[in-house]
């Protein structure tokens, strides 16, 4: 068999109190691959990412599932093991770069921190590496910038600092949770460009969590669409956009106003709202909003290949053969 | 063409910045620095730009929520700044706003019906008529009668935004300023609210000033679009014209930076992303505000502020270099 996947997640489930908020999530990320986890609020995408980092806390807890990292079993609940992994093989960047940085510490020291904490470099070496990494992510005059506090930097610069501190340890997997959502669109374009370059140059695997189908189209190799705490469809990015096979994916893509479509016309919309965690229907969780729903949908549809010819395109829908005619 | 419903001329909003120093000049942020536009009745003007460009401050100045340093705002022939007492109250019947965050816009201790009825009560509408009007408004925005006595925390984000819209429409306004009105909503809900705004405009003849950072949303809803950068409008044109033929280098960069939900088109893009960041608004270039990031800049751009010129009817542009390409001359040329 070929080299092991960078990350493999099997049957991951997460509960909040008595409710199941992530239910049986399976996916994997290959070496140098960019996988997008896409969904709306409450879909469970961010909790999935936090679970992979071992950062669930309080009343949110993992209720099932296994993980392997580069072929070795990984106990996401083992804090000591996860701590060792975070900042060496596994790094994460969050949506709010300004809130994620320490306001009282120079950005250079924050970028260097993971090398120092994990004992991988002396303070001076770590500082030099930090300056180099800041240069790599496109911070102008990094020698000066490294000595400044986050408050002297713009939001886009702070996100670059976050990315630099995630990259300095040369992680095997970068998890980016809505990394550009708080940024302006011209800065977003720079950051997405940087993420693609990073993958091309260092073969880092990336898991990007986003609600933005434009961002998915821009960077992802493979896409997992989440709804109601489950993956409802997974496919290679071109296949997903060209021929979605789950009604939610299809409808979601149809609701987005297009840059080249007709204007001031009625946009397609998905009726209703995402039900509350306590009110998810039995079986397919999308069926209360789905135009294709029928009796069989009260039974949970398996996530299976959409055809024999396309084994890596999977959808969880009893009516996936009718999706093309929707919208 | 008839007189515009809203006319803004030379609008400036400058905020002093607290430095903690007793002496010396107080620095100012020039949040809005000379903005002109007209909005016709029944029309939607979109204002797009990135954070700090002054688009929200422009809306707030029209609403009286930001101090006008200089310039004139005329609403239906009335100078907004000169209105006092009853006249000012009458203006609030005609001019309403929907902000981004429906959670903080609604009082958590009031029911939906109470929130929608509030402006009616303030404007002296009697109890019986108020109840009737609340029912009408709830139907108009697609809320169920059973939701009258619900509290905001019992509603979803999209439903809360419908409540805010119903309240804004209570007094039959002519102009609604939508400041990032759909930005906090999930995409599947966003399209529902956009459809509602379009239907209300058709049925009630509303005008919108639609302020947003989201270009695909602004494109969908607007008849005309003004692009702002650091306190000024750098380009303004009818929507189709702006997208087919963006002239200002910032507009071009902005349009090409928007990720398109189509991997083929997205990966075929060749334009290099715009480099650098927006400069500190306390320390603006004397000339063109875009000069620090502009791929077309020439000598003189950093010192001479480009004036907006009408390149063709309805298409205004503030760029020396593009102006010269099109008209053969610009303020950069010594002979002018």
Automatic annotation (TrEMBL), chain A:
This is Peptide/nickel transport system ATP-binding protein. One of its GO terms (biological process) is transmembrane transport. It is a peripheral membrane protein. It is found in: Cell inner membrane. GO terms for cellular component: plasma membrane. Belongs to the ABC transporter superfamily. It comes from Poseidonocella pacifica. NCBIfam families: oligo_HPY. InterPro entries: AAA+_ATPase, ABC_Ni/Peptide_Import, ABC_transporter-like_ATP-bd, ABC_transporter-like_CS, Oligopep_ABC_C, P-loop_NTPase. It comes from the Bacteria.
TrEMBL record, chain B:
SUPFAM superfamilies: P-loop containing nucleoside triphosphate hydrolases (SSF52540). It is a peripheral membrane protein. Its main location: membrane. Transmembrane segments: none annotated. It is found in: Cell inner membrane. Keywords: ATP-binding, Nucleotide-binding, Transport. The keyword Nucleotide-binding applies. GO terms for biological process: peptide transport; transmembrane transport. This is Peptide/nickel transport system ATP-binding protein/oligopeptide transport system ATP-binding protein. It comes from Poseidonocella pacifica.
